[in-house]
Amino acid sequence: MSTKNHQKRSRQIIKSFKAEFLKNRPFSIKIADALTTKFGTLGFFIINLTLFTAWILVNNGKIPGIPIFDPYPYVLLITTVSLEAIVLAIIVLISQNREGYINTMRDELQLHVNLLTEREITKVLVLLRELLKKNDIKISDAELDEMLLDIDTSHIERQLKKQIDGKPSTFAKKVTDPLFKAGEKMGKTLIPKK
């Protein structure tokens, strides 16, 4: 198979993997994705900017014939903008959760492909070693001997977990320790003594 065909096939697999998830998502997620797509546009920004500018102009009395309904400090505008921000944040989080799930599944698939590839490469190395033996070619290579061993994925997982869960660095301790102490002192001063 040529390199171009291999790359094209790989892209098709990735596209079909994501397409399968997109096709089977619930209706509510489809709505959230559609809204997220619209919210992330320059048009949405311009609409918001126009509405907020018009709101402020109207409520400063700059547009004759329209009565002031939300005088300075624009409490109604602030409430509206806050509610809009809450709704936008929730919709974006829904889309990001779905995207995160797809990425997790893709990573899991990639892990399995990598493990299968590792087995295939090990098999090729075993066959190569057998060919060398058959042709009385002797090669002593410790690295090759190590490559022929099965990968212990549980050992790798434990090592990664140990690195991730390990003790914080000295720099992190120097930064966080004073913050924790200050927080404890503030907590003690804020709690009334009986």
Give the class from helix and strand content and strand pairing: mainly alpha
CA radius of gyration is 30 Å
Mean pLDDT: 82
Q: Which parts are unreliable, with pLDDT below 50 for 5 consecutive residues or more?
A: none
Count the domains.
2
Largest sheet: none
Distance between the termini: 80 Å
Overall outline: elongated
| Fraction of residues in helix | over 70%
Give the H and E element order.
HHHHHHH
Per DSSP, what share of the residues sits in E-state strands of 2 or more residues? Answer: under 5%
Give the helix tally: 7
Counting DSSP E segments of at least 2 residues, the number of strands comes to 0
Question: How would you describe this structure in keywords?
Answer:
194 residues, mainly alpha, 2 domains, 78% helix, elongated
Could you walk me through the main structural features you see in this protein, from its secondary elements to its overall organization?
The termini are far apart. The longest helix has 60 residues, at 75-134. This protein has 194 residues and is mainly α. The chain has helices spanning 3-23, 27-39, 42-59, 75-134, 142-147, 153-165, 170-190. The radius of gyration is 30 Å and the shape is elongated. 78% of the residues lie in helices and 0% in strands. It has seven helices and no strands. The protein folds into two domains: 9-151, no CATH class; 154-194.
